[in-house]
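Database export, one record per block. Field names are fixed; values are copied verbatim from the stored entry.
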Amino acid sequence: MKCVLGAAALWITASSGLAGPLDEPHLNIIPRSETEKQRVTAVTRPTTEFNQAQPFEENSAGAASVRARKNANAFSDPSSNMSFENQLKFRVGNGMFRKVWVSSPTSTLASDGLGPLYNARSCQRCHIKDGRGHPPEFDDDNAVSMFLRVSIPGGTSHAIEEIESYLATQPDPNYGNQLQDSSLAGVPAEYTLQIEYQEIEIPLSDGETAFLRAPTHSAANLGYGPLHPEAMLSPRVAPQMVGLGLLEAIPAADIVALADPEDDDQDGISGRANLVWSLEYDMPMLGRFGLKAGSPTIMQQSAEAFSGDIGISTPLLPAGAGECTAQQTDCLNMPHGDGDERVFEVDQAGLDLTVFYSRNLGVPKRRNVDAPDVLAGKKIFYETGCIACHQPSFVTHRLADQPEQSFQLIWPYSDLLLHDMGEGLADNRPEHRATGREWRTPPLWGIGLTQQVSGHSYFLHDGRARNLLEAILWHGGEAEPHRDAVVAMPASDRAALIKFLESL
């Protein structure tokens, strides 16, 4: 694959499977010098020495790394290299993120416009403490931080014409793009999420055994008639929020350089970039955010969440009724929070504040990086081949107007590419270029603090894994040989591997 990077655009040859431009118009990029490019190549080359921690490895987010709190607020600090003025902006953005929305009309014009259909009344109620959501655990436990996406095959758009290998889908005619389990008075909710689990026993080496729970998700109590016969459902748990701005600042060239869609090096790992249509710039862009890399920028991801999760309009998605479809007439006819005095329920200033907050949630520093068992686990992680997808480090762009994210050595342990994870994890629902078996490699930074922040240790896109070992054992497809290696390795090596992951 041949890549030529300019100051703001990347052109990729057709052999990469990504014909056309990959621009980064949302970033004010200062091009790297040739000397800097050489330094970046050297510093991000995976290590082969595991007798001590690497230089700067403790700082997962570079100079933006925050101290590792020992309470549930560990994911809620701003980038540590932030100016005082920007800290004030961050706090106001936190207010937007935590705002509890109410129905219209009310006297609190700054907070009305909820729904009429919604999954949560605030961003914070899905991303609990800026951390990871969870599936409902008991019959009376609501699914506020989990929902089902829905689509049917087919449809037309600019993306189909301009993005190679684009997998066309369209909203369900009755239910839209996602199912909402809450609603305002007088409007039926769309569904109730139901999950049934089947226990699977997995024999491990040294006489150990693990148990996996295989979920079946269904939409019960449908409020607007049946789903389309070809409806495809995908369960989604809200992911953690830390480090998003740094992921956005990784050069597209560096991400795409890791792609190997035809597995030319024959290591069994492909990796493909998702290309998505940008609502901001009306063009194809590299997908980075979401469980299938379905959003190109934090701005678009935030607007989509406001619309789909809360029913709030923004300049990017201006529908005041959020996800209401043409068939949901009672929903469309309800009052909402835009009108003569207010064009959008969240205006551009409010959206910008939310984006700034989301961009600057700090990644905690690693713990115990020099501990012998952590170093042993790191060696196992690297030599087992996990880094083929979980790319250890990148250096972000030099940015003229984002000092917090500018030219930082970061350790997200993700390539942000799509990988076939096998039939066991397949949702069988495509998203842009992602097939029903592909998922974006999730960043691992902060994963060891999940229990502390979120009060649970549930992982993967639907929270089925109850601990890190279960998450590993669900790996299939491209990662199947690596999973099998974990199953077969000595129990002490598995324990060390988990210690390494817990240090991230």
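Remark 1: The radius of gyration is 22 Å.
Remark 2: The chain has one domain: 34-112+155-167+238-503.
End of record.
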